[in-house]
Write a structure and sequence with these properties.
By secondary structure, the protein is an all-alpha fold. It is built from five helices and no strands. The N and C termini lie far apart (43 Å).
């Protein structure tokens, strides 16, 4: 279920916005959202909320990759994930310095 939701979000952005930059911004945004949900889940959630969040929200994107793949495929997808974050950082730094 996790992979379907993430792939649907990425497909939605690619279909409607059709720009590479939007996909690069979306993947870290999803990952940051999942990490925030994980912090909420582990620190302030009661038992019922924890069970709901644990069932429907994975910890982060690498955990979804790990859940559905293994071995060499996991390594390839994880390096693609790292490359996406490097490109994301490039766009952020470029935007910061272009404003000045």
């Amino acid at each position: 279920m996790d992979i379907i939701i993430i792939m649907a979000l990425i497909g939605f952005v690619v279909f409607f916005f059709k720009r590479f930059v939007n996909v690069i911004y979306l993947i870290p945004a999803i990952d940051i959202f999942l990490r925030i949900i994980t912090v909420i889940k582990t620190t302030i959630a009661d038992a019922e909320t924890y069970a709901f969040l644990n069932k429907w929200f994975p910890a982060n994107i690498p955990s979804v990759i790990d859940k559905y793949t293994g071995g060499v495929v996991y390594n390839i997808l994880f390096f693609v994930y790292i490359i996406i974050y490097v490109i994301f950082e490039y766009y952020l730094i470029r935007q910061i310095f272009s404003k000045k």
